Amino acid sequence: MKQKMFFGLVTVFTLSLFIAACSEGIDNASEDLALEQKSAALAALDCPVCNFNTVLTEKEIEGLLWMREEEKVARDVYLTFYQLYGSLVFKNIAKSEQAHMDAILYLINGYKLTDLASAEIGKFTPGFQAIYDGLIAEGKKGLKEALQVAVKIEVMDIADLQTSVSETKVPNLVRVYNNLMAASKNHLKAFNFNLSKF
Length: 198
Description:
The protein is an all-alpha fold.
């Protein structure tokens, strides 16, 4: 299976420490931001040259299925951390991650692929299950650790989206990946802002 950056959590995490939000009001990643990102994610699918006529390569198919589960990891982790700590940043960004999952599912369905993501929160294919379980265990140590986990997830998500963009020229895939990457950068700023309070 394709090697993705998600398995390099510890190495890439150090890069995220240099990224911090400078603006006020980013700490809670408001409902408006989540809705705006959902709208943008779905709008990314609407373009004249975005259709399902292209025959995807195995690498492109693998990338779509990978990103679907990776976005689910983010959503499920954030929902779990919101239940544990009540921090709104997790609740609101989880909504955005759901929009990311929906956008990728739209592509998966459009290309008539089989979605591997479980409908159950916290359930994944084996490789992602191990990642999810490890992230949850680390985040259960405290709110600071949970925010650090969130930063890791967003850094990995950005890296994997960059890889996915580099591996395709299919317009609707490129548009969605770039849109989700921009949203993930905003998520990273929000989590770093919250982390800077410790």
